[in-house]
Amino acid sequence: MATISVPDPIPASNPGPQSSSSALYTARVDNLGGTSGQVRVHEGPASPHSSAPLVDGELPADELPAHELPAGPAPTPVVLLPTGGPTAPARGFNPEQFLAMAWSTCLGETLRVVLAECGLPHESHVSVEVGLHRDPSGGYRFAPRALVTIDEMAADEVQPLLEAAHARCPVSKLLSGSSEPIVELREPDSA
Question: Which secondary structure element, helix H or strand E, spans residue 162, and what is its range?
């Protein structure tokens, strides 16, 4: 079993990676199975809350009287994930955890595809840490780090597979600055 670390994808304009011990907060998650698996969030809320489908922003559909249910197929369920800050007594997920969940899941799935393309039936496990640091230029910055394990393979065999997955993973590209996020103003809906 080999564990390989993906370098911190921090743009060159920022100082080098800082240790997780210098982080103000570090979120830790583990993904097993990529997009068809699951993510374990360390120190997260007890469980996400699911609600019944919403009907026109009103009561959940399972709480409406039968005569008020809309005709046609049942509405799609809405999953509500509570949000919170990185410190106690927050009872929801924080941005560091969401980023860690996204990267671990995407990198895990991309690695599964790379392994399958190479005809390798090995299981992989992706753990991600996202540290919150003060940015010397002002504000804060994230310092993400992925730790990848592939069962029953030597490190020299894993490294090229990991590099291929990291190069193909859309979240890795975003974190590496290969993709540029777009922020747009959206006008509120007028009633």
Answer: helix 155-168
Are the CB atoms for 130 and 96 separated by under 8 Å? yes
Amino acid found at 13:
S
What mean pLDDT is predicted for residues 107-132? 95
Q: Which runs of E-coded beta strand occur in the chain? A: 2-6, 25-32, 38-41, 49-51, 78-80, 124-134, 140-150
Spatial distance between the Cα atoms of 169 and 108, rounded to a whole number of angstroms? 9
pTM for the structure as a whole:
0.74
Q: Parallel, antiparallel, or unpaired for β 78-80 and 2-6?
A: unpaired
Say how far apart CA 162 and CA 114 lie, in whole Å: 9
What is the average pLDDT value for the chain, to the nearest integer? 80
Residue 31: both structure tokens together: 């993904």
Q: What per-residue confidence (pLDDT) applies to 66?
A: 53
> Cβ(125)–Cβ(109) under 8 Å?
no
- Per-residue confidence (pLDDT) for residue 12, from 0 to 100: 32
Task: Between 129 and 57, name the one with better pLDDT.
Answer: 129
Question: What is the signed CA dihedral for 63, 68, 72, 78, rounded to 10 degrees?
Answer: -30
